[in-house]
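Can't paste images in this forum, so I'm doing it all in text. The chain is below; anyone willing to post the predicted structure tokens underneath?
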Amino acid sequence: MTFQWTAVAFFLYAEIVVNLILCIPFITAQRWSSVFSWRIWSWLSPYWNKCFIAIIAALIVLLFDAIREVQKYSSPEPMEDTKMNPNSYDHVYMKLFRAQRNLYICGFSLFLWLIMRRIMTLLNQTAVTLESSAGLEAQVDGALKATKQHQEDNRTLKQALLEGEKSMSTTKQQLKLEAEKLAGQLKAADEAVRKSNAELEAMKRQAKGLAQEYDRLLREHHQLQNLQSAEDKKDQ
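Text version of the structure:
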């Protein structure tokens, strides 16, 4: 195996190991996202796309070279040479086997390189989605707590309103009783005023009668005095 195919084989083994590590189930997407956010990756990020495209280009070139080798040793011309020279039969098939092996190695390397890039992208997207879903869950929890708090406040307000209505109805009943009591007292006071007015009128009439009687008695007294003084004069 030449140097380039040895390098492609080691690259394939490395890709298999990396893809297996990326597919480990107990390593979460958030953990991979924290690994991908290391400072070294941010330093290598400007070169990542160039390296990715360069490796794809190299693998494609090697893939076409392997396809060319397979077609070369699968064509009828080497088979005709083996018929003319039977000793070269094993050599041709060995070359065909190596060309097919190189084709498989290069094809799987290119395939796993694309798969690895896709897995890393999906892990990042999954981590971002989980973070956003966690933020949404926190917002939903906050909204639920606020809703529950509003419901508790509404319940408390309703209870306060019911208690206020009960106290208002009790106060209305008390005020109604007080008003009825005051109305009764006012009625009794009106009756007392009417009785007082009637007694006052009676006393006025009685006083007027007494004044008239006093004037009559006073006139009679004057008359008696006049008669007595006239009799005294006759006696003299």
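Helices lie at 3-22, 29-36, 39-74, 76-84, 89-235. DSSP finds five helices and no strands in the chain.
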